[in-house]
């Protein structure tokens, strides 16, 4: 499929990479880009040769926010009909892990896009922020919700109410990102991480991601029951038998994905 706003490749075995490609606009997120991004992720999710995906931008900007020109004069009904934020929800339905590889600006919708991924690898130059208050609005694609669940109420309040920006080092310290790497290495670090994940038992990876995400949605009691059911279900897979046999016989497992 030909895309106008993104680039798609498989840089390593089992890894799908989607690069936001509006460099002149600092990868501002507009409707066409988000549609292409979600379509590409859904196609990679359905590709048996891909076990983990990466979303990235360039060294200067992961994504500097939503494209304000699309919404500056919109009414509430027009915004609902535009369904711009609905595109973020499609990311929740992706079953395989998605890593955000972030350098430069990850602001507004760009920060929310990174937050919607399962893990974040940042370059030393990454900057995270939710500056919507400067435009007379608030985050609308998860910023107030996912940030709080990650870094806590006090820091989320400062970022949302007063445009506090987090450096890569701060983001790692507060638990927002998994690791920080030099600018010329961060993407390769993300690809290596994605490759390691993609090499593991595919069904177990998908169910593990689902169980961890459920912890954000429910009570501890319900979450433990959900986890337990996924654990039992994996005993119906060939990979469970293979993995345990390989462990007992001290050999490397050969995953089948079923």
Features:
alpha/beta, 258 residues, single chain, 11 helices, 44% helix, 2-enoyl-CoA Hydratase, Chain A, domain 1, four-stranded mixed beta sheet
How would you portray this structure in words?
By secondary structure, the protein is α/β, with parallel strands linked by helices. The chain has helices at residues 31-45, 76-82, 86-92, 109-116, 143-151, 153-162, 168-173, 186-198, 202-214, 220-233, 238-248; strands spanning 6-12, 14-20, 50-56, 61-63, 98-102, 105-107, 119-123, 127-129, 166-167, 179-181. It folds into 2 domains: 6-198, 2-enoyl-CoA Hydratase, Chain A, domain 1 (Alpha-Beta Complex); 202-248, Orthogonal Bundle (Lyase 2-enoyl-coa Hydratase, Chain  A, domain 2). It is built from 11 helices and 10 strands. Strands 1-2-3-5-7-10 form a 6-stranded mixed beta sheet, sandwiched between helices. Helix 1 links the parallel strand 2 and strand 3. The protein starts with 5 loop residues before the first strand and ends in a 10-residue tail after the last helix.
Radius of gyration: 19 Å
Average pLDDT figure: 94
CATH superfamily of the largest domain, by name, is 2-enoyl-CoA Hydratase, Chain A, domain 1
The poorly predicted ranges are: none
Distance between the termini: 28 Å
CATH architectural name of the largest domain: Alpha-Beta Complex
Q: Biggest sheet, open or closed, and with what strands and sense? A: 6 strands, mixed
Q: How many alpha or pi helices?
A: 11
SS strand fraction:
15-25%
Total discrete domains: 2
Top-tier CATH class of the largest domain = Alpha Beta
């Amino acid at each position: 499929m030909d895309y106008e706003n993104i680039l798609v490749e498989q840089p390593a075995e089992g890894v799908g990479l989607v690069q936001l490609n509006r460099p002149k606009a600092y990868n501002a997120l507009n409707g066409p880009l988000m549609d292409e991004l979600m379509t590409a992720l859904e196609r990679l999710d359905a590709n048996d040769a891909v076990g983990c995906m990466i979303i990235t931008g360039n060294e200067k900007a992961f994504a500097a926010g939503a494209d304000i020109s699309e919404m500056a004069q919109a009414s509430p009904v027009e915004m609902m009909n535009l369904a711009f934020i609905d595109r973020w929800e499609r990311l929740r339905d992706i079953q395989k892990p998605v890593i955000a590889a972030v350098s430069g600006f990850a602001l507004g919708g760009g920060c929310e896009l990174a937050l919607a991924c399962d893990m974040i690898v940042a370059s030393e130059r990454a900057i995270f922020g939710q500056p919507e208050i400067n435009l007379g609005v608030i985050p609308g694609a998860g910023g107030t919700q996912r940030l709080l669940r990650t870094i806590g109420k006090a820091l989320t309040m400062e970022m949302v109410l007063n445009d506090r920006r987090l450096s890569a080092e701060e983001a790692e310290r507060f638990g927002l990102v998994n690791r920080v790497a030099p600018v010329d290495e961060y993407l390769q670090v993300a690809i290596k991480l994605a490759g390691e994940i993609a090499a593991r038992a595919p069904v177990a990876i998908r169910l593990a991601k689902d169980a961890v995400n459920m912890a954000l949605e429910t009570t501890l009691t319900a979450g433990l029951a959900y986890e337990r059911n996924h654990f039992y279900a994996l005993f119906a897979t060939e990979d469970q038998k293979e993995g345990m046999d390989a462990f007992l016989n001290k050999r490397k497992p050969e995953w089948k994905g079923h």
